Amino acid sequence: MDAWVIAVIIVLLVIGVVAFAATRSRRSKGGGRQLKERFGSEYDRVVERSNDRTEAERELQRRVERHEQLDIRDLSTEQRDHYVTAWRDVQRRFVDDPEGTLGEADRLITSAMRDRGYPTEHFEQKVDDLSVEHADTVNAYREAHAIADRHEREGVSTDDLRVAMQRFREIFEDIVGTHAA
């Protein structure tokens, strides 16, 4: 084979590798931008937690892929009405029993998640699954759950219980798809 043919082949291979790398880099950056837009502050939280943007984006992409495998559905009108009524009842009883209603609120959210098709066995998996469609309110769920856990261990003030109920309401309304207040 002539030297010029080998040189042309090498140049074409180099151009191909450079084009492939540039396309992959653009796709990766675009994917990161799409993930950031989709997950918002959850994107920042995962990046900060992992200290590696690429690994964080892989984690978020795994969440999206897992979510696509789930059979997530909207609640029927009857289910939604049931949950709104139940939530109003929990809120009404909060004044007299803030500690008891906190657990009820969490169980109501879990029940609504289950009826929508979300797996509900493990808290961290629940928030990961919710973060795909409910990125704006999933942190409220984390905060409410943390207050409830802290309350079980050491007790918290009534004001902390009120904050937890407000945060539970944020995620509840997002999951159920209506304002319950």
Please name the defining characteristics of this protein.
0% strand; mainly alpha; 8 helices; 181 residues; 2 domains
Overall geometry: elongated
The gyration radius over C-alpha positions equals 23 Å
How is the biggest beta sheet arranged?
none
Number of helices: 8
CA-CA gap between termini: 80 Å
Task: Kindly state the number of beta strands.
Answer: 0
Give the rounded overall mean pLDDT.
87
Helix content: over 70%
H/E element sequence: HHHHHHHH
Count of the domains:
2
Give the structural class: mainly alpha
Low-confidence stretches: 25-30
Beta-strand percentage? under 5%
Task: Give a verbal description of the structure.
The chain has 8 helices and no strands. The chain has helices at residues 3-39, 41-50, 53-69, 77-94, 98-116, 123-133, 138-154, 158-176. Helix 1 packs across helix 2 (41-50) and helix 4 packs antiparallel against helix 5 (98-116). The longest helix has 37 residues, at 3-39. The relative contact order is 0.11.
Quick take:
By secondary structure, the chain is mainly α. The protein has helices at residues 3-39, 41-50, 53-69, 77-94, 98-116, 123-133, 138-154, 158-176.
